[in-house]
Amino acid sequence: GYSIGRIQPDDLAREHLAGARAAGLDVGVYFYAQAISPEEAAEEARWCLDFLGSESLDLPVVYDWEKVHNENSRSLEMDRRTLTDCAKTFLETIEMAGYNAMVYFNPHQSRNLYYLEELKQYDFWLASYTDRMDFPYKVDMWQYTQEGKVPGVTGNVDINLWLAE
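and the corresponding structure tokens:
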């Protein structure tokens, strides 16, 4: 809902969760957020929690906010303070419900769109397509390529390393 702010569920999310569990994988979820205020971020978190119901997760619930560069995008003018407050609201709401919370970002977002110091109590998932990890904060998951190959999947996929202890 980058243009109107309506939450758009992934129709295959439950099927993917069940399939991953059936394959013996640990599961978590991410929420592709488009909130432009803390109030909207709280609404997104509540929607995510309603979707999860009593679902138990092995991995965190991830806040994935990405600026949409489209003339109809509501987030074009998003500022650093508001985005950080949105992330904090979403992550706090998720953790209060008993789930682990994580924030996903790339180096540009970490330098220009978030006050990471205010979010460091949460797990970090960094998308940085480099040969080695070079980041000033503790990172729990590293997305090191978007050109990975996985048997049974057509096309490129993101590949991540779970670095948490």
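(Above: one complete record from the training split.) The beta strands are 29-33, 61-65, 101-105, 123-127, 141-148, 157-162.
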